[in-house]
Amino acid sequence: MIRFIQRATCLILSSALALPAAASDAVRGETSTFQSPNGVTERCVRISRMPSAVYSEKDLKTEAEYCGIDFHAPDIALCPKTYSTSPGVIVHDISGGRYANNRQEFERMACPEGKPAKDLSAGEIAKFKPTMNARGTSGTFSPSPLLYYHFSRYFEADLEVPPAVWRSMDRAAHLSEVARPGLAQSGHNHSSGMNNAGWQVLVDADTDPDSYSPTDELFTGDRTAIYGALLSSPGSRYNSAVNGTRKSGWGKGQNLDFQETAPYLALRSGKALPEAIAEGIAGAIRDPQIKRDMGADVDPRQIAFWMTDIANIVLLDFIFSQQDRIGNIDYNGQWMWVEAGELKHRKVDSHDNGSAPAPGAIRLQRTHLNDNDAGGRVEYANYAKSTQMLEKLRHFPATTYRKLMALNADLQGEGLLHAYVRESFGLDQRQVRQIVENAALAADILSAICTRGELQFDLDPESFFLDGAVTPVALECGG
Questions:
Q1: C-alpha separations of 429 from 51, 148, 203, 376, 424 in Å
Q2: Residue in 81, 80, 117, 77 with CA at minimum distance from that of residue 95
């Protein structure tokens, strides 16, 4: 069992009376506090539960575990994330292993190994990611993973979005322990230029917070701490079967390529679900890469799950103006089978020998939406909107639709959900307004398709798994 040394007290952070002028540390929720060796108070905030959202016991347990991590405890080590495009901090458990409770030596010897450092610790337990939107860096916005986590629970999406909490860290400790080492250890191959640029910006900003603009998006109001999202996001990257071929390059091109995958083509079909799935598969395998990656004999039940996942992803990305989704959709393996008329499932783990756990069990890929850090900012390009992803849908989950209509009604009436969005995430007025406007536009688009009689509420992959067909749910288009 992972052991965390805690020096925490809990309180409820009161909400601000007015919206900040820029995204800031004015978040709301149950707060744990820690003292850094420099005497700086660090906070971990479990953002308040979203009204009408459904959280699992595992969600709440994970939040509590994250807010029990003392970044400066002797059995915790911090490594700079020097792979991929954005800088961050990998939090390691060093309560056991070669470097047990030897934080300084682990950070000196193991952290430069990059990803393999986890094999030298008792495990990676979390990732701390701050905002980073400077020139030459990869766009990340720390409230974005928090928004995706809580809104996915509101929509009751059958989609794995990792729990996330808000966290601050002593700015001087971040500079000496991870930012300077991150700058030194990154940028040594052709694909790490943006990561290295991000570390350079963080070194400069930790040294002089005013060098980063807007400063409040990166540092607490007193400038003593840097803040970001704390989460863990394991998963394997989908190939072209779900992420698309990406042959048309970054931006609109790859977002249009994504719409030529089997699940998205099936979502565009006006036919009943089984025929739409067959049509989607036939259309997608015209592309040699997708045919090679997915196969022409893909199980229709797999497509049904993917369709439901993508419908929810498109809606969330539309609302939050996500600019970097395509190529960043992951999965975890899951065994599924029918036993005594009920659907059973079990996660595929590294110890599986490939044999099915029960007669008739099939191995499916279940979407794990890990990379959610490029949404929420007004400056980001909303590719779900600009490539008309919602307008093309002809199948949609009934629960998601109902919750969207309720969300829009509340946001327009400035009700409980509006207050929650306004007060919980540290967003500025423009960012809140963008969510309100995008949710309204999403509701208008989908209700118009529904009113024309072209939207089928038949995305129930578990029923499809059991029966091979789904009876569409009859809904009032106005919600």
A1: 21, 19, 29, 12, 13
A2: 77
Residues 251, 309: Cα–Cα separation, whole Å: 21
Taking the C-alpha atoms of residue 240 and residue 292, their distance in angstroms, rounded to an integer, is 9
Q: Is 17 exposed, middle or buried (0-12, 13-18, 19+ CB in 10 A)?
A: exposed
Give CA angle at 292 (287, 296), nearest 5°.
Answer: 80
According to DSSP, residue 223 is labeled S
d(CA 315, CA 68): 33
Positive or negative, the CA dihedral 305, 307, 312, 316 is: positive
Maximal C-alpha separation, the chain = 65
Full DSSP string of 283-296: HHTTSHHHHHHH-T
Order of strands across the sheet with 89-93? 10-12, 29-35, 41-47, 164-170, 225-231, 124-130, 89-93, 76-80
In angstroms, the CA 435 to CA 383 distance is 15
Amino acid at residue number 311: A
Dihedral over alpha carbons 103, 104, 105, 106 (to 10 degrees): 50
- Do the beta carbons of residue 186 and residue 195 sit within 8 Å? yes
Rounded to an integer, what distance in angstroms lies between the CA atom of residue 326 and that of residue 57?
A: 30
What sign does the CA torsion over 261, 348, 370, 198 have?
negative
Residues 6+ apart with CB under 8 A from 265: 259, 279, 280, 283, 284
Q: What is the C-alpha to C-alpha distance for residues 248 and 257, in angstroms, rounded to an integer?
A: 7
Which runs of E-coded beta strand occur in 72-186?
A: 76-80, 89-93, 124-130, 164-170
- pLDDT tens for the chain, 479 residues: list them: 333 334 343 433 333 334 566 789 999 999 999 999 999 999 999 999 999 999 999 999 999 999 999 999 999 999 999 988 899 999 999 999 899 999 999 999 999 999 899 999 999 999 999 999 999 998 999 999 999 999 999 999 989 999 999 999 999 999 999 999 999 999 887 668 899 999 999 999 999 999 999 999 999 999 999 999 999 988 899 999 999 999 999 899 999 999 999 999 999 999 999 999 999 999 999 999 999 999 999 999 999 999 999 999 999 999 999 999 999 999 999 999 999 989 999 988 766 667 888 898 999 999 999 999 999 999 999 999 999 999 999 999 999 999 999 999 999 999 999 999 999 999 999 999 999 999 999 999 999 999 999 999 999 999 999 999 999 999 999 87
> Residue 360 is encoded by which pair of tokens?
């008739």
What is the full DSSP assignment across 232-245? ----EE--HHHH--
